[in-house]
Amino acid sequence: MHGSSPSVPARINPTRSKLAAALLAAWCGAAASCGGSSPTAATTVTPTASLTPVSAGADWPTSTLDAEHLDPARLGDLVLRIRRGDYGRITSLVVARRGRLVVEEYFNGWSAERPHTMQSVTKSVVSLLAGMAAKAGKLSVDDAVTRFFPAYEPFANFDNRKAAMTLRDLLTMRTGLDWSEDPYAGSPLQRLNECRCDWLRFVLDWRMREAPGTRWEYVSGGVILAGGIVGAAAGMRLDQFASAQLFDPVGATGAYWISGLPDGLPHGGGGLFLRPRDAAKLGQLIVDQGRWQGRSIVDASWIRESTGRVAQGLRVWAGHSFDYGYLWWLTTDGGDEIVTASGAGGQWIFAVPRRQLVVVSTGDNNDSRSTAAVAFLFSHVLPAALE
To answer: Which of these, 268, 287, 259, lies nearest to 349 by C-alpha position?
Structure first.
């Protein structure tokens, strides 16, 4: 990882405090902290492991590898490697193809019904929610940030640059704020996570470095602020809006958020917990242009806009270069467009629309192996997806 491991955010839901403390011992708000190298699995297929039968359920149609043209030898080899620890501590692997769940494996004591920390994958969820609020006419991505927070006036360090900052600037990480998260120690993000203060005021009052839209800089605080804007525009907290408009419609159960001030504000920069199979549903929304089992959840135009490139060549993970959209990572390495959500410790959603493929992996790798899922996506999963 880049920098030191952050601490658990200052205020958490007391009913979840023990679980959150255990899972967020290496809290890291920035997807940049998922960088570094990871072991690249050999592509030679060895004797395979037996895959766990996928449990049928009302929320996900299921199928078989053969029916969905997925190579069982390659995927079995991958599961064998994960089980023996080749990729460190992976906790789940979920694969869906053509809208059907075909692989659901859990490792290192994890289980299907246990929500997992998603870390900065949370940011990509905020992108979906912002698009949903925009489609409902509650906001525009070109709205000025400060217009949503009249109760916070006067803002500290206020100038024409801060007045010009828009929601689009927050979603594209071009805020203009004088904010750096690498190294974490002493950074604004560490101060926010540990301040026991109003997170929205903390970011709103932060000083500017340059005009918004000028330069890309990873700012987790800006995504917390974006979540606050969605909540203010929707007339309910971000987590409540997410449950009503996104998680309930796709059958994502058990989701919860690390929260802080004011009034249980969800940590939109990295505080979401989801079951891995529910994380895969979010990838399926990308593949199906915002639809879930025939029902429009997110507007297709937002999926296209938010997964378009605004900055290029920002990260290299496991030898593959990634660009950035609206809180989504993007790569075309290998020829496929792959829309990616990334979180510290090895939390990943990969959506590959051309192949009708979704891959989710979660982990507990707070070292270079946090990018192991990128390595095995290219060495095992994509080659297993037969045309």
So the answer is: 287
Cα separation, 42 vs 312, whole angstroms = 28
**Of 365, 269, 267, nearest in space to 25 by CA:** 365
332-375 residue pLDDT tens: 988 899 999 999 999 999 999 999 999 999 999 999 999 999 99
Report the 10 Å Cβ neighbour count for 321: 14
Q: What is the pLDDT of residue 2?
A: 34
Domain residue limits, the chain: 14-33+119-250, 35-114+275-384
Q: What is the CATH number of domain 14-33+119-250?
A: 3.40.710.10
CA-to-CA distance for 378 and 374, rounded, in angstroms? 7
For residue 202, give both structure tokens.
Answer: 């903390």
The span from the CA of 58 to the CA of 56, in Å, is 7
What distance lies between CA 106 and its chain's CA centroid? Answer: 19
Q: Where are the alpha helices (DSSP H) in 195-275?
A: 199-204, 220-234, 238-242, 248-250
Helical spans, DSSP H, in 115-264: 121-135, 160-164, 167-171, 188-194, 199-204, 220-234, 238-242, 248-250
Cα–Cα distance for residue pair 316/318, rounded to 1 Å? 7
Rounded Cα–Cα distance for residues 92 and 110 (Å): 7
pTM of structure: 0.90
CATH numeric code, 35-114+275-384 = 3.40.710.10
Distance, in Å, from the CA atom of 374 to the CA atom of 275, rounded to the nearest integer, reads 20
Q: Is 35-114+275-384 in the same CATH topology as 14-33+119-250?
A: yes
Helix, strand, coil abundance in the chain, percent, nearest 5? 35, 20, 45
Q: Kindly report, residue by residue over 244-256, the tens digit of the pLDDT.
A: 999 999 999 999 9
- Mark residue 53 as left, alpha or beta (left: phi above 0; alpha: psi -120 to 50; beta: remaining): beta
Looking up tokens 């938010």 gives 306
Report the amino acid identity of residue 166: T
